[in-house]
Design brief:
50% helix; alpha/beta; six-stranded mixed β-sheet; 11 helices; binds coenzyme A; four-stranded mixed β-sheet
């Protein structure tokens, strides 16, 4: 049971590993993921993160049902808050997170993918929110993030029926951006992360923050924020380097300053 972090240059690859339970989250595994989210958020050498699951069968099969089954409301609340803390941590991280969904992403597994900025999947992936079949509502962000991502009608169907979607349907509704054969998933997700990592970290972080605001504030307030980050970008080395490099017909080397 662990959450491993590997580095590939400026990209961090985070692997949820609890193979005996399809990478399902018990409290220890949740805390480990939260710790990694916090560590990576404060590491300025990390410019993009890929989140995936150990093996080829599961990204994460949700919250640990055996641990949950005996919880009372107070314990369930703490368990729910831990899941929310991870979602909030990924959302407020300066780096974009890409979920590489390498198999089942059910319940809390789907919600961790939803908390990421971008999702890609393997051909054998299946995504769903089966909580209602267990007698509970989704509790780690699914009721809020799924409708924002795929629209209220499809989200309602997923959250109310518990139906699992195969990768091609997830692609069609925009739940994932791309589908790859299993062996090509991680290389493609890492390549996308490297492309992000090569861009200006200052501009990438500002863009992530502005996009996240789009679902929280009225349009006028979001546009005010965008106007501010756009203006402030012209006080960064990254802006000077990016535009100088364009004029000099070379690749920019961004410092994040
Ligand atoms: N919590 C705890 N253990 C889980 C788990 C979960 N969410 N999901 C899978 N596991 C365990 C199984 O109990 C099994 O353990 P065992 O070998 O000790 O019996 C092991 O992982 C393998 O799962 P299994 O069900 O045998 O594999 P499968 O290929 O037949 O089915 C799933 C895979 C993912 C479809 C099925 O395990 C499943 O539906 N899991 C629950 C998903 C869910 O409802 N998640 C939301 C929770 S809120």
């Amino acid at each position: 049971m662990a959450v491993h972090v590997e580095r590939d240059g400026a990209v961090a690859i985070v692997t949820m590993s609890r193979p005996e339970a399809m990478n399902a989250f018990n409290t220890e595994q949740l805390q480990a993921l939260l710790d990694r989210v916090r560590e990576l958020s404060s590491d300025s050498t990390v410019r993009a993160v890929v989140l995936t699951g150990e093996g080829k069968r599961a990204f994460a099969a949700g919250a640990d049902i055996s641990e949950m089954s005996s919880k009372g409301p107070a314990e369930a609340r703490r368990f729910g808050e831990l899941g929310h803390a991870i979602g909030r941590g990924i959302g407020s991280a300066p780096q974009p997170w890409i979920a590489a969904v390498n198999g089942y992403a059910l319940g809390g597994g789907c919600e961790m993918a939803l908390a990421c900025d971008i999702r890609v999947a393997s051909e054998n992936a299946q995504l769903g929110q089966p909580e209602v079949t267990l007698g509970i509502p989704a509790g780690w962000g699914g009721t809020q993030r799924l409708p924002r991502l795929v629209g209220p009608g499809i989200a309602a169907e997923m959250l109310l029926t518990g139906r699992r979607l195969k990768a091609d349907e997830a692609l069609r509704i925009g739940l994932v951006n791309a589908v790859y054969p299993s062996d090509e998933l991680l290389p493609n997700a890492t390549e996308m992360a490297q492309t992000i990592a090569n861009n200006s970290p200052a501009a990438v972080t500002a863009t992530k923050q502005a996009m996240r605001l789009a679902f929280d504030v009225p349009l006028a307030d979001g546009l005010t924020f965008e106007a501010q980050i756009f203006a402030l970008a012209f006080d960064t080395q990254d802006q000077k380097e990016g535009m100088t490099a364009f004029a000099e017909k070379r690749s920019a080397k961004f410092s994040g300053e």
